[in-house]
User: Fold this.
Amino acid sequence: MGFRKCRYLRLQCFLVGAIVGTAAISTNAASDNLDEWGEPSPQAFNFQNDVWEAGVGAGYAFALGPKEIDQTVQNNFLTEYPFPGVSPYATATGDLHDAFVTQAHVYRRTSSWLSMGLEADYQDESVNIPFSGFINGLPELIPDYTWRTHILQITPSLKFGPSMGWFRPYLTVGAGWAFVEQWVFIDDGQFNVGNGTTEDMHDSGYRRDNFLTANGGAGIEFGIPSNWSVGLGVRYNQIFAPNPKGGYMFVVPNAHFDYHF
Assistant:
């Protein structure tokens, strides 16, 4: 548990560093892109000149709303040594964590205010089972477990924003598909089967689902030399899944780097 907390602390520190670094670059761009008369420097990329835009980014998804999530698990011991009236299947319950997000996108400008394109987001969620967790709604001691939720989203998107030289505010909206994969492993320790023999016992489960997803966001971009730009943004994202109740909902602050051609 301590290792997982340290890892996510490192991810948060990395994201904060990326956002601060991007903000610093953006601030420098804002000053370096203006000459002494306040006009755009000829070295700065001018958003009026781009047709295609391709970029990558990183962010951190803060889970909103209901976070309780369920997963069906199968007990290996009860499967191999069945007990009358006892099912080897159970339902484990946990809470969805916040997560680090990687992003990629490509857009084609169709007018001075509008671009059309495709966005992809990937996040590796950790699900927390309290130390006294729940199996089939009943409390059970769960000292060791791994529960991951991988989410890949592909969304055709629209990007709105005026091309104001080296500076551009923007809004985005998109809707598409979310591919959600869950894997859980709960270590139940060992069970004495008699004659001095013990068997490892665990609960495990796996499932994959496809859901509709939608997002909307806003941000600001600054042109820098050699057809590059940097930007900061924030996005609201909802995956329309029945579990957790109301679906997965996130707010995602992010930083991104783009190439224009």
